[in-house]
Design goal:
The chain is built from 6 helices and 5 strands, in the order ααααββαβββα. The chain has 197 residues and is of the alpha+beta class.
């Protein structure tokens, strides 16, 4: 019975957590925009806030793809970047989104490496973000690579490391497979193989 319970839990948990996060996110969005609709209409319409949010996202995407929309968005970005405190927040979020977005080749992670972190003898999986930065190489008097080491299970947070190029061990796996391994805490390896297979 104990084995059946554990197996059942392992099967149901990913789906339950996914549905919970989805329902929580939709209910939060619905409560925010639902109050706006309630003010306009006079009564609460279940799900109206979620539909409004989806339409707003699609509309923004359509607006951002045409010439006039791009220019207005660029103008808005310039305004954000001129405001002292907001500029740091906006730029950081924008760079993070660009780094994790498959649609942006410029800011994508280049390759996967192993680095000795947090101490010698322990290895962490990281993503090379840039190579050959003159200022860094001059400071440490050798070729260095900047590496982002993500945390588990949330890979959007992590550590920025400057590592000598000779201390980075290349891994012959894709960025996507590396992310799966990090998010699962090593349970899912490259090519979707689990630690039990």
């Amino acid at each position: 019975m104990r084995r059946y319970f554990i197996n059942g839990l392992l099967v149901l948990l990913p789906g339950v957590v996914t549905v919970y996060v989805l329902v929580f996110g939709l209910s939060t969005i619905d409560s925010i925009f639902g109050s706006v609709i309630k003010t306009l209409v006079g009564y609460h319409i279940p799900g109206a806030g979620t539909i409004l949010t989806i339409l707003l996202i699609i509309g923004t995407g359509m607006f951002a793809t045409n010439v006039i929309g791009k220019r207005i968005i660029q103008l808005g970005e310039r305004i954000f970047l001129k405001i002292p405190v907001l500029s740091n927040i906006y730029q950081g979020v924008r760079q993070a989104v660009s780094a994790f977005s498959r649609s942006s080749d410029k800011h994508q992670f280049q390759r996967v490496v192993l680095v000795e972190y947090p101490r010698r003898g322990l290895y962490s999986m990281g993503f090379v973000t840039s190579e050959g930065i003159p200022e860094i190489n001059e400071s440490i008097q050798e070729d260095a690579i900047t590496v982002f080491v993500p945390t588990t299970p949330n890979p959007t947070s992590g550590f920025f490391l400057v590592v000598p190029a000779q201390d980075c061990l290349p891994l012959n796996i894709s960025i996507e497979d590396a992310f799966k391994t990090v998010i699962s805490g090593g349970i899912i390896g490259p090519n979707g193989k689990t630690s039990q297979s």
